[in-house]
Amino acid sequence: MKKVVIEVPKGKSEQIQEKFRDVLFSVNEAEKSTRFTLYIPDDMLDDLIHQTNGSVMKPSRPLWTGIIPDFGSTDDHDRITLIEVSTPDFVISPFVEKVKEQFGYLKKKDSRTPIEKIIAATESYAEFDKNKIILAVIAGLVALIGLFLNNIGVIIGAMLISPLLGPIYALAVYIAIGDVKTTLRCVGILGLMVFMLVGIAALATFVLSLVVPLALTPEIAARQDPNAVFILMALLLGFATMTALSEGIPEGIAGVAIAAALLPPAVVTGLSLVLFPEGALRAAVLTLQNIVGLIAGSIIGTMFFHIGPRDIFSQGLSRQFITRILWFLAILIVFLVIVSFLV
Description:
With 343 residues, this protein is an alpha+beta fold. The chain is built from 14 helices and four strands. About 5% of the residues have low confidence.
């Protein structure tokens, strides 16, 4: 059950009220605005937002963008308009029970998570966060220890704390909604994390090599063997991750899948630069294969689950953006497949 608060200027109240006359709601009249409070089943949320979105927001600035207008040019319409969604602990109402029964009978098979909720979940990953960078460094060092100890348990422990899922998930979502600026920022954050993992692994390996003898373990050697099959694996993992996140499966589970494909190869690339130069290029190719595959699989997942903007104009622009990105990724995949046979 969801609680939805919709506040609009008085001139739009009658138009909005028609959109949800079949659900439980209360009305609170103010001097310039009208506030509606609704209680609806979870599966009705996306349809409700889709129906009211065009009436609540101005066509030139759809709700999904999350853009906060400049305060100097903000008019009363922008200041008053609001859609807020929360989850109450429980709701007791005979009317709600009737709605549940009716909607349970007519429920669509393809209920979706609202795009606004998905974007809200990715916003923190689209900004530089020193805490996540520190967490990535710790995960890289733990993975490095596990690789040298040939201990799969320690490597899995590093995967559990790795924050690599966020930038990839955010990148796919912002590509899906056609937000070029934020997409480039996500690419920068992801690139920074990967290069940082490589650099930290190289530096730590150099320091350790001065103290203790370091050997090529089977876990390290396994990440120095690029193969076209790993691209397919990464594609499937990227798609599965988007499936899990769109269905509300805990982020940690999907994050381990991403870290399993990306964290160890990136660390092996760094340590190989110091100890095993002949394997560094192969580990780097494997890392790139996984990155490209994960991004491509995640984007395909957004298309499969119809993750994108609500307004028709923005949908057209996002489709063009996705098409160009997928062509670029396809060329990269072909290139990496060829390279995997040559190194």
